From TrEMBL:
This is HAT C-terminal dimerisation domain-containing protein. The keyword Transferase does not apply. Keywords: Coiled coil. Pfam families: Dimer_Tnp_hAT (PF05699). InterPro entries: HATC_C_dom (IPR008906), RNaseH-like_sf (IPR012337). It comes from the Eukaryota. The lineage of its organism: Eukaryota, Metazoa, Ecdysozoa, Arthropoda, Hexapoda. Residues 462-531 form the HAT C-terminal dimerisation domain. GO terms for molecular function: protein dimerization activity. Residues 560-625 form a coiled coil.
Amino acid sequence: MISKRESATRAEIIWCLKNVASNMSAASTQGIVDVFKAMFGTLPTDFSLSPTKLSYIISEALGPYCRNMFVQDLRENYFSLQYDETTNNKDLKELQICLRFYSEKEKKIVVKHLETFFLGNAKAETLKEYIINSLNNAGLHLKKLLMLGSDGPNVNIKVSRLVNEEIKALNRKPLIDIGTCSIHLVHNAFLKGLQAFGSHASEFIISIYYFFDGWPLRNEDFSKIQENHSLPNHKFLKHISTRWLTIGPAIDRILEQYEALEEYFLKFIPKYRSSLINTKHYKDVAAYLKVKNFKTELEFVSSVAKYFTTYTGFFQTTEPLIHIMYDKLRSLTIKLLTKILKPNVLKDFRGIVQYPDKIFTTENLLPMDSIIVCEDSIGKLPKNEKIIMLKNVQKFYIASSKYILTKSPLRLKELKYFSFLNPFMIKEVPSYYVTRICDKLPCNINKESVVEEFTMFVNTENLDSFETSPVDTFWSSMDENRYPELSKVVKMCLSLVHGSADVERGFSLSGRILSEDRTSMSLRTLNHKLYIIDALNMVDNRPELFHITPELMNMTRLASNSYKRYLEEKQLEVKRLELENKKIIEEKEREKEQLKLFENKQKRIEELENELKTVNKEKTVCQLTVDRLLDKTNKAIKKVLKSTECGSDVKIAGVLLHSVIEQRKDEKQKIKQTDKLQSNILKRKSTVISGLVDKKKKSSE
């Protein structure tokens, strides 16, 4: 029998789950009790909700409980970590970190939010620290990390190196390397092709979109022309230049409306809306529409984009696809190469992968007239324009395929070995595929046992029943007691990352929660809502199906006290930081005073040094004067000795001798003064240096 108190707590939990599931605001709980009473008549007497109560139930009960659910599910299993960063609605760098692992509870590969951070910068060292901290915060060990999944910029290569250094310190094998996100790789390959082919199509699409965007009269005029041509009243799609593969659907829409565009821009506007002729977007669009082969260019970009979007669309799923990644990437590359290379060259695909810079030579390339592209429209072009078009097409295929060959993991043999997981190929792959993979895995595995179990599984189990269900569903049916070592290997392999779409979906979800009107939301609340959403996904986002345990009920009842403790701890932390800041400010003030004192001492030393220079100059003058007087005295004495009449000369010699004696006294005085100044300067310098050394020692302590 459920008590009224338990009934009220359950109702509060379910409604808080609903609030998160539907991304409702905290303000939606205001007056909710009265609304429910009006709707249902009676409610549990203890039922109550408010924005504050909703907040602490989420942050003190539901969030921690849901996070603990996935941490317990992960337990001792190995996992891959995916991360990415972007700028959010707070205008801060947001770092999203999630884990990919085999769920013992759900019996499939899952991706769970681990933690989100707000950053000031995204340097490799900073990212590495946050990655390590996120694992420590969840009580997870770095030694269980299989690989890092990222989108490929150089900073992420350094992050991987830094994390590997941490792993090396644990006496463990390095992270598994199967390259960076293949979705970004293929996306960038298309970009390289477009850069070689020309960016006219992209510029044209952007100009058309912004010509119509926000202009009702222009849209109204164009809709009438659409109607005249029996064309659907479709709007033009936005293409973002940094997301090159959005160009495909945007071009398809333009090709659908091409006849209407020609009439509207080249006939209707000059005749009826001549004021638009001087606008930039009109000039750009009209100029492209007048180019004879421009439609052919659009048709080519539209057709070739489908090769790339087929791949990127296929790999934007959480379902494990590591087992077919090599074949799919190889298939795409061969499709591109087939367009421009002679058939005999394509026979040695391994050689192509190893030496991509050597294959695009004149003798290996197909003749221009053998390149097949948009046959219906290209045949109508003049010969010289046709040659230019075919050369640009050739440039596209060379640039895009070369990028894939040089940047993709096709060079890594390990990627091919994962095909042992493919149910459709499992009977064909050699057993050494399994052992080679075992060599890369971070734990000690008995390879002989794995091969024995794999061979037995292939030869004794009914594998023909597998259809198109996810590969983790296929392997989850394997008896772990019968195949313990193989099961361990399979779970680790399926946990590897084939693309970064999962973490990008996390950004979309985070963006909906942390919308522009909720930028005051704390990072703590954001993280807890993301944990709850992950848990709700297990019950198809239906709060009423969420399993409410006694532990969760107890956490909810204690949430208020827990929230108060959190606020008290936060206040203590604020006070601690204020005290630290006060100490820092006081220390800076002391440093300022010491600096001022040092500057005064330095100034006095400079004054003494200048005084010393003056005295030295005076001493030098004095010495020169003495030397001159001595010289004159000597000459006078010599003259006295030679002269018989020496009365006046003796007087002169006596005066000179007296002057020399006086000057010598002055010289001695200057020497004493110089010595005193030098001693004073040395003493002051010694005091200043000692002060600096003592300060350095204190700061190091």
